[in-house]
Amino acid sequence: MSSRLNIIIVPDKGGDTKRYRLSVFWLKFFAVIAxxxxxxxxxxxxxxxRIAQRALDYDRLNAKNEQLxxxxxxxxxxxxxxxxxxxxxxxxxxxxGGHLDVGRLSYSDTLLxxxxxxxxxxxxxxxxxxxxxxxxxxxxxxxxxxPTCMPAEGFISQGFHQDYLFPERSHLGIDxxxxxxEPIVAAAAGRITFSGWTPYFGKCIIIAxxxxxxxxxxxxxxxxxxxxxxxxxGEPIALLGTTGQSSAPHLHFEIWKxxxxxxxxxxxxxxxxxxx
Length: 276
Description:
Layout lengths: L3 E6 L8 E6 H72 L11 H12 L5 H7 L6 H9 L9 E4 L15 E4 L5 E3 L4 E9 L3 E7 L4 E11 L6 E2 L4 E5 L9 E8 L2 E3 L14
Antiparallel strand pairs: 1-2, 3-4, 4-11, 5-10, 6-7, 6-9, 7-8, 8-10, 8-11, 11-12
Helix pairs in contact: 2-4
């Protein structure tokens, strides 16, 4: 015989007494069902909390990915700007002298082309020395056109630094601090491709040399040469000054090889780093 639970309800102000008989089995059954429902609700709340936390983490990761994408786009844009600058410099070099090839020369035709160039105009004075006929003629020609001459007297106040991630922080040359009005000379024989004013470097000069070299001289007090002038190695081309965005007299000197900036200190030989 199954157990039953009797429930008697007696009203306070009279009335019929009500009696209910409930099976203990069904009471236990509904209690178990209620417990299962409560446990399911608790589990659901915990699952929702975990899902919400994962969703929050996903949003954070997505925001970081978007930031990284922005940085990647910025790097790509800067790389494109650098490449465009290199292409512009390459165009300047190719356009120099019209038919004159100032690109990289093979060893076999170096002597012939250099000889024809050196015996043109102002270069003729040095042709006898450079083309002496001995086994070192080619080496002397290459050294003549390579920018190895220190362009000004003074000391190095700032060196070469190239930052590929943040190009605006780069310093693509060396600063030679000196006295106002001191002569600035050509680091190698070549031809003037620019002589004028720029907002940052003030009065500046650019010289194109053979074998893809380009030298830059900025913050000049006075430019002594004009575009298309041919200059010899060591010939004065400007006077040292502080034009443009400069806080003290100095020469900003850069060397570019095939459209790429290089450290001038790897080339110049007669440099003077004394502070006196």
